[in-house]
Amino acid sequence: MCNLYSSYTTQEAMRRAFEVARDSAGNVPPLPAIFPDQMAPVVRMADGERELIQMRWGFPPPPKVGTQPVTNVRNVSSPFWRAWLKPQYRCLVPLTSFSEYKDTKPRKTRVWFALNKDRPLAAFAGIWRPWTGVRGTKAEPVEGEHLLYSFLTSEPNGVVGPIHPKAMPVILTTPEEYETWLTAPADVALKLQRPLPDEMLEIVAEGAKSDQPEVA
């Protein structure tokens, strides 16, 4: 389960990479570590154009599944998720790397994956929804209306599998894939729910709590 990723890039780079027409995100600094329930940038369709906006990571869980926000979605055939797979609720979640835990002793080790060591921008295949309730921490609860996002997972590829054999995030890397995910009918868009080819992903760091490209 991917519960930590990085979007260590500039707002302008996101606008260019995802052909954003409307920027409603406010000030978004480079984010070397994004955890569940934090605010982060996503790209959605709004009035026929792409909008960059900040949302909170994690859907409310299905009934009788606990209380923790759902950050990763695998079973897209479930009726609970089907409504949020319509084009108007799909989004792109910008990333430069993501982390999974290696099962080492005495404690697990974070392993960071990216397209390559330069950490170029890509996007998780995301979904979003409005929701009213309380989010945030016990110390700093945030009550009211929220925009929430999660993203799809698939079986892992040969790079992620040895570290995390259960799943990996669905990653989109081309303008054509971005357009398909944002606008195509569900049966077409969901063909993108597949692992990234092995040659398109590599391990770029281990052990770090956050990730950013090294500065020469």
From TrEMBL:
GO terms for molecular function: lyase activity; peptidase activity; single-stranded DNA binding. One of its GO terms (biological process) is proteolysis. Keywords: Covalent protein-DNA linkage, DNA damage, DNA-binding, Hydrolase, Lyase, Protease. InterPro entries: SRAP, SRAP-like. It is an enzyme of class 3 (hydrolase). Its EC number is 3.4.-.-. Coiled coil: none annotated. Belongs to the SOS response-associated peptidase family. This is Abasic site processing protein.
